[in-house]
Amino acid sequence: MFRWRGSRALVLLFLLSLPAVTTRIYASDEIQYFSFLRSLWFDHDLNFDNEYRYFEDHYFADRGVPPPIGFASTFLEETTATGYRRNFGTIGCAILWAPFYAAGDAVARVLHAMGRPVAVDGYSKPYIAAVCYGSACYGFAALLLSAAIVRRSLGASLAATAAVWFGTPLFFYMYLAPVFAHACEAFAVALLLWSWLRARERWTPGRAAVVGAAGALAGMVREQELILVAAPALDFLWTAIQTVRARRPSESGSPAPAPAALAAAAAAGVAGFALAYVPQAIAYLSINGRLRASGEVTRKMNWAAPHFFEVLFSQEHGFVFWTPLAVLAACGLLWLAAGGGARGAMERRERRTLGVCSLAIAVLITYVVGSLESWSAAGAFGHRRFVSLTPVLVIGIAALLTSAAANRGALRWAVRGLIGLCLWWNLGLMAQFGLNWMDRRQLTLADNARLTFVTLPFEAPQLVWRYVWDRSSFYNLPRR
């Protein structure tokens, strides 16, 4: 799946970047996702009362910072219909983090046995650090999967992968706020897209089951991603209809499967999804007393998607303004969907498939985010709910670079220059966000641009030095 020669520079850079991961928990969302894992590992239940009380009474107090605003009133004063504490998160991150948490548990026990002051309680530094590094690894795995998808159709993918790594909020949620679900979410969506593209070459029961399980994982990491299952499901349905009508060869050129084989693949896909989704179903029943999310979550949805365009173009948290690299990626995806640069019918079909499937993922995610009453994700860095578009952005940027490479004139350098500006814009916004130099609820584009392109180039060396050697100096800074 991966070519080591093409990816080793990325892997080396990622390994060198691991010290930049900030190993702390500071937001209520992070507490909820982490509490799933800690409660299951130590208490073997889904009652989060003791986890929430620990964070409220000890974790933040020990660090000299206040707990998240409204945390106690939301999570410690009321219970659900089953008598459990509320948790608006999902169980998927806990499943993905479990191997890293096991390593953290082993480290904590060894250090404790050696007489070091490390508690074996699920909260001490080895546990928190393990989860944070786990998220960083999953974010990087999302990039590698995206690169593997690109390599099959477009060839080289190193530049596009690096551009999305540093030019989107994925970077922030890998290194500065890793206990949010978004790095894991990017991995789950990349896995779903990769397995779907592989399965559609020839729908077999095994491949369909993998697609179903990948869709379930995406939905267990963040509920909004359940809608993505519709894309491969509709694609499979269309393939089945066409096969039954005409018994045409599949797009890979191999003989089309018989209707019975397609029925078996459909059953395997449904079974793969259902079996993989069992942990989330159990969590819903235990916490909410019903087989779905809590009412507080479902009431946020208006399926008419009234905010579809606002999530893209609003200055509050519009994806286009926070992450202009997405505009360049969209140009690449449209070029790809048109079969741009293909040398033959087979290559044109492959490129069009990749472009159309990627655009379908993008539209579905935009639709569901635009359906949320809390569409702006105010107070967060970037439009965090679009971090799941990581593989789509890699594909789009790779396509744009491929199209520009055929032009030996100014266009090629213009594309590279625009990508460079998008990267610096993202890094500049991260610095402003971390230093509290900006309104975290919305962009003020003129001020943000001045700070990013005029002020920060002179202050960048000193800020990097502080981040490496005095990272806590960035915490809880007053608004400038």
Walkthrough of the structure:
This protein has 480 residues and is an all-alpha fold. 66% of the residues lie in helices and 0% in strands. The termini are far apart.
Strand content: under 5%
Category by helix and strand content: mainly alpha
Shape: globular
Quaternary structure annotation? single chain
Got a strand count?
Answer: 0
Helix amount: 55-70%
User: pLDDT below 50 for ≥5 consecutive residues: which ranges?
Assistant: none
Give the structure's gist in a few sentences.
The chain is mostly helical and 480 residues long.
Which characteristics define this entry?
480 residues; mainly alpha; 66% helix; globular
Topology:
Elements: H1 4-17, H2 28-43, H3 49-62, H4 71-75, H5 92-113, H6 125-154, H7 158-167, H8 170-175, H9 182-199, H10 205-221, H11 230-246, H12 259-276, H13 278-288, H14 295-298, H15 310-313, H16 319-322, H17 325-337, H18 345-370, H19 390-405, H20 410-435, H21 445-469
Helix pairs in contact: 2-5, 5-6, 6-7, 6-9, 6-19, 7-19, 7-20, 9-10, 10-12, 17-18, 17-19, 18-19, 19-20, 20-21
